[in-house]
Amino acid sequence: MQGSVDEVLELADWRRQMFDLYRQVRTLAAEDPEAAWRLWRSRRDDLFRSHPQSAIPAAERESFQGL
Q1: d(CA 65, CA 15)
Q2: Beta strands of 1-67 (E only): which ranges?
Q3: What is the dihedral of CA 24, 13, 46, 34, to 10 degrees?
Q4: How far apart are CA 53 and CA 11, in angstroms?
Q5: pLDDT 10s per residue in the chain (67 long)?
Q6: Which single residue of 29, 30, 46, 52 has CA 20 to 30 Å from 23?
């Protein structure tokens, strides 16, 4: 794997946060699918907007409105 130690740790953090989000959404969806969907959209968009490993280019993150 190439990249600095910081980049590798940031990627591990991105994955951890996404896995945790999936877990939360699955749990919530059993009782309230709409709330689960809102949580998914909100947290996912926050990660795309703020996380260093976001697929959104850094210059576009501040104005990112969501997928």
Answers
A1: 22
A2: none
A3: -10
A4: 6
A5: 567 999 999 999 999 999 999 999 999 999 999 999 999 999 999 999 999 999 999 999 989 988 7
A6: 52
- Amino acid at residue number 65: Q
Q: Residue 1: its pLDDT value, please? A: 53
Tokens 């996912």, residue? 44
pLDDT score recorded for residue 67:
78
Give the pLDDT confidence score for residue 14 in this predicted structure.
Answer: 96
Rounded CA separation 29/48 (Å):
22
DSSP 2: -
Say how many C-beta atoms besides its own lie within 10 A of residue 25's C-beta: 19
Is residue 54 within 8 A of residue 44, CB to CB? The reply is no
- Residue 24 one-letter amino acid: Q
